[in-house]
Amino acid sequence: MAVNTETMQKSKFGRICVFCGSSQGKKSSYQDAAVDLGNELVLRNIDLVYGGGSIGLMGLVSQAVHDGGRHVIGVIPKTLMPRELTGETVGEVRAVADMHQRKAEMARHSDAFIALPGGYGTLEELLEVITWAQLGIHDKPVGLLNVDGYYNSLLSFIDTA
Predict the structure, then answer these.
(1) Which UniProt keywords apply (predicted)?
(2) Taking CA 58 as the corner, what is the angle to CA 40 and CA 28, rounded to the nearest 5 degrees?
(3) Is the pLDDT of residue 84 over 80?
């Protein structure tokens, strides 16, 4: 993607962690949102921290950010590398021991968090950083990209919990 540097915006965030699925998802709108988010990060001069996979929504958002010339840090447990790294990787890949270390490393390198649609792993990552904020472990913003109402049920649950 060719980016017009005259239209680039400066953000208060240097790096944003994006949680998302290692699959493409059930709707093409999820794929479109992953690419659009990656392009928006580029336009705002924001680097990406993510789960390290080269497949699914993870692969789409990381490729968009990388193609736009921003730095990409992927953090992936060694046990997931054979399953989630296929073909070429983009940016910097950091292999860690387990899922807990992955989340801690992703949080350490991020100024904020955004969750795209995903499965159990995405939900677990999202809820952990929300819990860390609630406990005062960090004060970083956490947001949802609620594509086609994907997170409506979760938001309803949170409103009544």
Answers:
(1) Cytokinin biosynthesis, Hydrolase
(2) 75
(3) no
